[in-house]
Amino acid sequence: MARSVDTIVDEAISESAHRLQGAGDDYEPLFRLIGNARFVLLGEATHGTHEFYAERARITRALIERFGFSAVAVEADWPDAYRVNRYIRGQTDDRNGRDALGGFMRFPTWMWRNAEVLTFIEWLRSRNDDLRDPGGKAGFYGLDLYSLYTSIDAVLRYLQHTDPEAARRARARYACFDHFDRDSERYAYAAGFGASQSCEDEVVAQLAEMQRRGVSATEGRAAAATDEHFYAMQNARLVKNAEEYYRTMFRGRVSSWNLRDRHMAQTLEALDAHLSRDSPAKIVVWEHNSHIGDARATQMGAIGEWTLGQLVRERYDAESVLVGFTTHHGTVIAASDWGGPALRKRVRPALPDSYEDLFHRAAIDRFLLPLRGDNPATCGLRAARLERAIGVIYLPETERASHYFDATLPRQFDAVIHCDETSALEPLEAVDKPASVPSDEAPEAYPTGL
After folding, report:
1. Looking at the predicted structure, is the pLDDT value of residue 214 above 90?
2. Full-model pTM
3. Could you give the count of Cα atoms lying within 13 Å of 130 in the half-sphere of its Cβ?
4. Within this chain, do residues 304 and 406 fall inside the same structural domain, yes or no?
5. How close are the terminal C-alpha atoms of the chain, in Å?
6. Residues 193 and 294 in one domain
7. What is the pLDDT of residues 90-149, one digit of tens each?
8. 270 lies in a domain?
9. Are 166 and 119 members of one domain?
10. Closest Cα partner for 147 from 238, 234, 255?
């Protein structure tokens, strides 16, 4: 009697799945797959799940300790993450990791101000403190672009310290934004709909001036000073890209999404170049599946969107590995609307015949599923299916429309880690309380939630 398609797929998953049991050798198949890759992109299916953060940290510790990875780049703004970078390198007055995470005060604060991230950065600080060679210390960096005004302030502080005359010129250029009361969303409306002249020329001119002075500004300087110059340059680049992002944000999802992921790819490339001065850098990336997966394997790609994962594959090819995460059911920290309180919500069981449902049928609590080559799972999962994505907003009442899209998993990722039942992460602030403070910047992941 012929076997059904479902039976064949179920057997293929069970045959290829590597059970995760909390042992030290859990991820050896993943490390073999990574091999000599320099870019390992680790995803998450939600922005509020304990297991995703914990497993990413577990994998990243091994990549740093055993395989020489030297940086963690995350879906966060450059200035806020760089404050953490200074802390883990012992270059700050922050007393502890909780203080170092103090820059993450915009909605959704729980995305980086949580117990899982705090534990990880304290481990990074402890490890770095034990190293005699400063060149061996690992760093922590942000790839996102929402910090328009925070980055302007950082550029002006740097120039005021290093070149007051250049600071005067920069201040005059950036004064273009003064008409919007340091409100990036107000600028987005005004510039996007033609109600006000944009600041495009000013931010381009400022970045161009800093690029022209780049080599002379760093010649003969100590590594710490060179790092600070790189930090300022990235802030100037972020201001230029954020201005373009906000100017196009209300014209359509595709253009703003692509600008954001292009910026993240450019920042990763700049970070790679900066850290590869002596030898090729090796960088771990933490972002949502929707960013680190290859868009060409999803319905996002069909409408013209690209992703960081796609751009990394196109640029670095065999030097990159993309790892997605999935879950079937559990709890999650998310809001019900923008700027709303952090809520502990129940994640509904996955829809029938979705990837998450197939993995649930394997009846394995947690497993790694390699998706390269012609293994049974790769062959069995070639047909497009539904995949779930929960961002900072979770709307279970509109689950199908709000949180599922079509994807072909073996083309989207090189491997997937499935945690069948997951639990909400632990925010540093109380749950069910407002998850933000007044800010002049747009919320993280606005307006898509991913």
Report:
1. no
2. 0.92
3. 7
4. yes
5. 45
6. no
7. 999 999 999 999 999 989 999 999 999 999 999 999 999 999 888 889 999 999 999 999
8. no
9. no
10. 238
| Residue that is written with structure tokens 């809001």 in the block | 335
Q: ∠ at Cα 293 (290, 297), nearest 5°?
A: 105
Which residues sit opposite 346 in a β-bridge?
A: 331
User: Count of domains in the chain?
Assistant: 2
Q: Which residue has the tokens 């960088």?
A: 283
The answer to whether residues 43 and 324 touch, using CB atoms and an 8 Å cutoff, is: yes
- Look at the block and give the residue holding tokens 């970070």: 271
**What residue numbers bound the domain in which 315 lies?**
1-144+282-450
pLDDT score at 10: 84
pLDDT of residue 439: 45
Does residue 433 fall inside a structural domain? yes
Q: With respect to residue 119, please indicate whether it lies within any of the assigned structural domains.
A: yes
